[in-house]
Amino acid sequence: MNEDAIRADIVRWGKSFFERGLTAGSSGNISARVEDGFITTPTNSCLGFLKPERLSKLDVEGNHISGDPPTKEIPLHFAFYEGRQCGAVIHLHSTYATALSCLSDIDRRDALPPITPYVVMRVGKVPLVPYTRPGSTAIKPLVASIVANSSAALLENHGPVVSGLTVEAAAFAIEELEEAAKLALLTRGMQVRHLPPEAVADLDATFKLR
Ligand SMILES: O=C(CO)COP(=O)(O)O
Ligand SMILES: [Zn+2]
């Protein structure tokens, strides 16, 4: 995909997330790799009202070269780009995944149990990353330590973040994460049947979606 198409995709998905209430106000950020660097959403922008020409452009090292000033979550996004093969990163403050990130009794190594096939296929294991101030560079080593085995994470008391090969793949994954978080919360306290390890292994072997 060329840079214009990637800029259009970021705007299209940002608008869609905002209009469906998947992130509010100026929360959340999207980035994607382009041939000579990265395109990111500007800091303090509303994902619903992005303009392709005002998106931030960074060089391959992460220096801002054009457009509005970039998201303050560059260290978070770069932990994925440097640690795994991916072309896009999306962070939202979607309600159910954020609610899950605030619970004190979830499994920190895998905050989202394998409740449906699609969360296994598109998201996989979701570790809970310890709280850091939004935009802090301290997030980078914490996320870097989990990206070899995970394409997604929950930031403690903050929200979800996912990586994908494309903006669309990352969007599908973060939506699936949100739906699974919703199901996990709706069924909390009930006797939930999780997918058995054989089913998870079968899905991992059959589908390569992340
Ligand atoms: O969600 C956010 C911080 O975690 C939004 O930050 P930015 O406006 O800098 O992208
Ligand atoms: Zn945030």
Automatic annotation (TrEMBL):
Span of domain Class II aldolase/adducin N-terminal: 8-185
Gene3D superfamilies xrefs: Class II aldolase/adducin N-terminal domain
GO cellular component terms, A-Z: cytosol
SUPFAM superfamilies in the cross-refs: AraD/HMP-PK domain-like
Keywords recorded for this protein, A-Z: Carbohydrate metabolism, Lyase, Metal-binding, Zinc
Cofactor: Zn(2+)
A GO MF term: aldehyde-lyase activity
GO BP: any one term: pentose catabolic process
Stated role: Catalyzes the decarboxylation of 3-oxo-tetronate 4-phosphate to dihydroxyacetone phosphate (DHAP) and CO(2).
Family listed: Belongs to the aldolase class II family. AraD/FucA subfamily.
Name of the protein: 3-oxo-tetronate 4-phosphate decarboxylase
